[in-house]
Amino acid sequence: MFRHSLSRTITAVTIIGLFLSACASPATPAPTPTPTQPKPIVLTDGLKRTISLPTPAKRVVSMAPSNTEILFAIGAGSQVVGRDEFSDYPVEAKSLPSVGGSYGKYNMEAIVNLQPDLVLATEINTKEQVKTLEDLGLTVYLLPNPTDFDGMYQYLMTVAQLTGHETQASSLIERLKTRVKAVQNKILPLSSRPSVFYELDSTDPNAPYTSGPGTFVNLIIDMAGGFNIGNKLSSPWAQISLEELVVQNPAIILLGDSAYGVSVESVATRTGWSALDAVKNKRVYAFDDNLVSRPGPRLVDGLEQMAKLIHPEVFQ
Amino acid sequence: MRNSFRPYLLNILLLVLAVLLSIAIGAVLIPPGTLVRMLLTKFPGISISANWPETFNVIVYQIRLPHTALVLLTGAALAGSGAAYQGLFRNPLADPYLIGVASGAGLGAVLAMALRWPGTLGGLFSIPAAAFIGALVTVGIVYLMTYSRGAIPNTTLILAGVAVGSFASALTSYLMLQSQGELHRALAWLLGGANMSGWEPVLAALPYVILSLCILAISGHALNVLQFGEEQAQQLGISVQRVKFLLILAATLATAAAISFSGIIGFIGLIVPHLIRILWGPDYRRLISLSILAGASLLLLADLLARVILAPQELPVGIITALAGGPFFLWVLRRSQRNSA
Amino acid sequence: MSNQDILNIQSLTVTYGSHTAIRDVNLSIRKGEILALIGPNGAGKTTLIRAVSGVIHPQAGEISLSGKNLVDFSPARRAKYLSVVPQARNLPEAFTVRQTVLLGRTPYLGWLGQPSSSDHEHVTWALERTETLSLADRRIGELSGGEQQRVLLARALAQQTPIMLLDEPTAHLDLHHQARLLNLVRELTREQGLAVLMALHDLNLVAIYADRVALLVNGQLSFLGTPNEVLTPSRLSEAYQLQLNVVPHPEYGTPLILPDGLRP
Fold first, then answer.
1. With 90 as the cut, is the pLDDT of residue C113 above it?
2. What is the mean pLDDT of residues A71-99?
3. Residue-level pLDDT at B123
4. What 8-state DSSP symbol labels residue A77?
5. Parallel/antiparallel/unpaired status of strands C195-199 and C255-259
6. A109 touches chain B (CB under 8 A)
7. Is residue A24 part of a domain?
8. Does residue A299 share a domain with residue A201?
9. pLDDT per residue over A215-254, tens digit each?
10. Domain tally for chain A?
11. Shortest distance, CA C174 to any CA of chain B (angstroms)
12. Does A44 touch chain B (CB under 8 A)?
């Protein structure tokens, strides 16, 4: 008899419970007037993840020199609170605290301590590093590497959206495009296309490293009216034998490794190099590799300088 | 026999000190008083109102503590395995990488990176897992190549290890050059810089390291007997080939687990056993367990140095161990020359 | 087979690759007896000892201990019956004498190797008998060849086995230590009924100390018998390919072997 009444109680409670929960689930919320809020920024990053920021980022840590250059160029410099060891442009960036980056190691403590609301990474950063930062509660946006100038403009705009500088970025992009067009206009009517050897590393002067196809160096040499002899090699960062170099006989040699102490004069002293036209005609030039290897607005500077060196006849 | 506790006491104290320093020191200055309160608060029954910034919590509990734990496990694994190998091969130059475990791990990791594993952030364990498997497979191949009529002669084992290891290294270099997109990641991994952080690596490596080190630590007597040569050891009643298999298995598991998450750190496995031997004698019953303790402490101290010497830039700890290890090793050589002269 | 036989070797054949080191050897070792193993270099003496101690596997034949086939014994079990005194070479220098002799107790220690007081007693006894107690805390690397050899004998004694195999134990000893060591072995054989198989190169010592002699030539057992029976000019000349004389020892009456063909 007790069991009978117990089961009835349970049934009753269950039915009441179901009824209440059915009433409790909201069908449609009653519309309430909400103040206009800024829409969150939602973008897909280089790792195909959807990143959303409620408002433009105010405290950004940059994990690569190219990101730092982009941030400052679009006017977000005052929002950068930390940068990697190698960020050296513009000069204001150098006074910002460093978060590491040599040997591929970043100081996670330092990054956390800066309390950023956005960490801007690049393809140089490993997935493990991105995950570590996310596990520590930070928002990470990985900016992919562009493959051409249009890509670079697009990523300028991306960073601008993340930091709230769309207007400035737009006008920057316009100015950059104008400069590029100016170079192209001068190059287009020219008939000569001198061959160029862009040296990345000459530790072994019998087999120096150069930029191959698919690199910005390759693209910029082409846009500057030259022909990159590294274009024929099989990978973006490849060795060329001295023999092949002699056969190709470039008209111009650009020392992308001049920052590591390789001087113009030293090239002529290398065995076998004095036979090259570029050396004979004294068309060996030092070149700031940062202008063509960092995927940011200074690529345009790189294009202009490259064009001046390759076709001095049309650039004064 | 009372002084037989002293070395253990010393080493445990050193380890505790090293752990505390490792947690206390980093790029961000956390006052010691705050740190003590932060640690105490985690004990059940003690509650302290948190008057420190939230970032400190992240730094101590999610960065420093798990990092300390991983370095501790790695130092213990490398030194313990190194001591075991020095005993097994009766060679003071032996280290845990002698028969190919490091080359195999490197190959596994780089292969996984070259194949663009994982696709997503969620699968990042595949790299250390690939390294671990690569290490085990490589040592397994070396072992099978050496096995002949029930015996695995030491010289053959070492030669096979050198051969297979060189082959694996060559393959690794080739893969790194071919997959340029992953080149910097592979380099960072090999140097020990691309580690996953947090507690997951610690929990993953822990069972292998603990189990294997326990096996090695209790195998001291067998190693003592082996010092008289395998023939005499067999005549004294040791099942030599079985013991060798067990020791190689345990050392390989511990080392592979450690380097899969910490990268390939040198010199600890070579030097710590020597230090212990010089200080407290060649009895392997003590040598292994003392090496385990000292290896953990010394790697923690080296790691500390790596983190602060160029702060905020962190050096890979392998550079510190090599810089300290080289001169120390020369000193050991000079000392042993003087003793034997 | 007498009931004093403790170890029986039947039709034993051991090959290294294509080379046959010992072929079809039949031998038995008795309690309380020293069986000396003689023969020219390369005759197979060391191989025989290694095969009996279990470190190499014979291609054919059987070794049985009191009727049980040794092949079924694990190394630990075998080590309770058979101990070996090898030549004192390449010993790990840092071990002390006491630590070394303690390793002789391995078959009785667990995996951890922790000795009991009984183990220590056996070690002390072994040190006393071999007169190495005063060296107990010295490192074996610091000892002379003779001292090291006695330490290895002490280790075998500590192993407490009914059978002991010795491989040229007098090889690097001076006359004084040769005599002392062999005297000790004989004492132990008489006292404790030890069964000893000993490879010896000095035939005159064999004549004095051995109860029986096994002559091995080219891996085969050429003759087995008492010293008087085996150490004859004809047998020895053939085995050693050298002319020699055998005369009675002036003091002991045992055979005294004098090589001929020497030119002072």
1. no
2. 95
3. 67
4. G
5. unpaired
6. yes
7. no
8. yes
9. 999 999 999 999 999 998 888 888 899 999 999 999 999 9
10. 2
11. 24
12. no
Q: What is the separation of C-alpha A23 from the centre of its chain, rounded to a whole number of angstroms?
A: 53
Residue carrying the six token digits 């101690």: C53
Are B221 and C76 within 8 A, CB to CB?
Answer: no
Q: Render pLDDT for A110-129 as a digit per residue (tens, 0 to 9).
A: 999 999 999 999 988 888 88
- Rounded distance, CA A130 to CA A134, Å? 6
Residue C42's pLDDT is what? 83
Interchain pair C55, B235: CB under 8 A: yes
When scoring C59, C95, C117, C161 by the number of chain B Cβ atoms within 10 A, the one with the most, hence best to mutate, is C95
CA distance A158 to A74: 11
Where residue B26 sits, what CATH number does that domain have?
1.10.3470.10
Q: Do C79 and B235 touch (CB under 8 A)?
A: yes
A128 closest CB neighbour out of B195, B313, B315: B195
DSSP track, C65-76: ETTEEGGGS-HH
Domains identified in chain C and CATH numbers: 27-54+75-259 (3.40.50.300)
Listed residues A115, A137, A170: the one ending a domain: A170
φ, ψ for residue B95, nearest 5 deg:
-140, 175
CB distance C136 to C96 below 8 Å: yes
Q: Which residue of B has its CA nearest to A49?
A: B120
Residue A94 domain boundaries:
41-170
Examine residue A207 and state whether it is found in any structural domain, yes or no.
yes
Model-wide pTM > 0.90: no
Chains in contact with A, counting 3 or more C-beta pairs less than 8 Å apart as contact: B
Minimum mean pLDDT among A24-28, A161-165, B325-329: which range?
A: A24-28
Residue C224 to chain B, least CA–CA distance (Å): 26
Are residues C112 and B221, on separate chains, in Cβ contact within 8 Å?
A: yes
- Tell me if C111 and B277 make a contact (CB, 8 A cut-off): no
Tell whether A157 and A205 lie within a shared domain: no
* Residue that has been written with the tokens 């090496």 in this structure: B291
Structure tokens at A304: 């202009």
The chain-wide mean pLDDT, for chain C, equals 91
A98 close contact with B: CB closer than 8 A? yes
Closest CA to C112 of A1, B223, A35, A60: B223
Average pLDDT, stretch A160-166? 95
| Tens-digit pLDDT profile for residues B239-295 | 999 999 999 999 999 999 999 999 889 899 999 999 899 889 889 999 999 999 999
pLDDT(C154) > 60: yes
Residue A22 lies in a domain: no
The b/e string for C40-56 (b: 16+ C-beta within 10 A; e otherwise) is: beebbbbbbbbbbbbbb
Residue A114 domain-assigned (yes or no): yes
Give the distance from residue A238's alpha carbon to the nearest chain B alpha carbon, in angstroms: 9
Q: C51, C61 in Cβ contact below 8 A?
A: no
Segment C75-96 shows an average pLDDT of 93
- Interface touch B63/A123, C-beta < 8 Å: no
CB contact under 8 A, A135 and B198: yes
B280-289, B306-315, C194-203: segment of lowest average pLDDT? B306-315
**Mean of pLDDT over chain A:** 88
Band of residue A36 on the pLDDT scale cut at 50, 70, 90? low
Contact B191 A135 (CB under 8 A): no
CA atoms of C98 and B287, how far apart (whole Å): 18
Q: How far is C187 from chain B (nearest CA, A)?
A: 23
Chains in contact with C, counting 3 or more C-beta pairs less than 8 Å apart as contact = B
- B160-B162-B166-B167 Cα dihedral, nearest 10 degrees: 0
Contact B90 C82 (CB under 8 A): no
C115 touches chain B (CB under 8 A): no
Structure tokens at B110: 């780089």
* Residue B277 structural domain: 2-340
Is pLDDT of A7 > 60? no
> What is the token pair recorded at A234?
């099989």
Tell me the C-alpha to C-alpha distance, in Å, between residue A141 and each of A93, A121, A130, A266.
20, 6, 9, 43
